[in-house]
Amino acid sequence: MARHIACLSYDFDTWSGFASRGMMTPTPISRGEFGIVGARRILDLLASRGIRGSWYIPGVVIETYPEACERVVAGGHEIGHHGWSHVPPAELPPQREAEEFARAVESIRRLTGRGPAGYRSPAWDLSAQSIDLMIQHGCRYDSSMMGHDCEPYFARRGDRVAVDAPLAFGETTDLVEVPISWSLDDHPHFEFFRTPAGIMPGLANADAVLANWLADFEYMTRTTEWGALVFTFHPYVSGRGHRMLMMEKLIDGLGRMGAAFLTLDELQQEFRARQGG
């Protein structure tokens, strides 16, 4: 029997993503803080539709806004690991990455009473040791890579990559990779950035983005018997009025196409069951 899954995921970064880019003056920090407003709106929408999502929250955000994060937990949503700071692990020295990873796990334990089932890298850029750290801390899945569009797979570690040689594949692990895509992320579509390096225009028409996202799901239903798409939102991005309406239309449109809404933890469990493990 055909089954097609939609996962609604939320990177609850608030100001931490701006700070990690060196944008620490009052205006960008306030821009991130709008995420607290956006999160309330999103939680209300999800509750109205009876949907649980997966929320990835940096440790610094958990410690800054405990009440806002407690509301996410109270809504029954999954809390995933999203670093301590929002600095991508690929930019951290190994010891610093290990320390930040462990520190974020403890923040999540204090918030939820248990460690995270899954991890999502800030800015979706893993280091050579990131998968080892996930396994060491008991994570069952990662959601930072892009090797498929609508089917999880088991992540590898230890690939050897060189410009002038074939890729040497590493070991396949027991860590499930739940793939993501920049095309299914609200940030590159909607967020305007002006930096010394250039301009990211953002500010796309929300209905055009919605049409793309629904079309991706429709294509999956036509070409697979079982599959899943992961949509990624940032509350400070999609908490704006017209984008909230887009999220509502997306949820209702996916529902009309027969989508089953799962958290990423539920998805990786279902994937494992299908693999016989």
UniProtKB/TrEMBL annotation:
GO terms for molecular function: hydrolase activity, acting on carbon-nitrogen (but not peptide) bonds. Gene3D superfamilies: Glycoside hydrolase/deacetylase (3.20.20.370). GO terms for biological process: carbohydrate metabolic process. It holds the Pfam family Polysacc_deac_1. Residues 26-277 form the NodB homology domain. InterPro entries: Glyco_hydro/deAcase_b/a-brl, NODB_dom, PgdA-like. Belongs to the polysaccharide deacetylase family. Is involved in generating a small heat-stable compound (Nod), an acylated oligomer of N-acetylglucosamine, that stimulates mitosis in various plant protoplasts. This is Chitooligosaccharide deacetylase. It comes from Teichococcus rhizosphaerae.
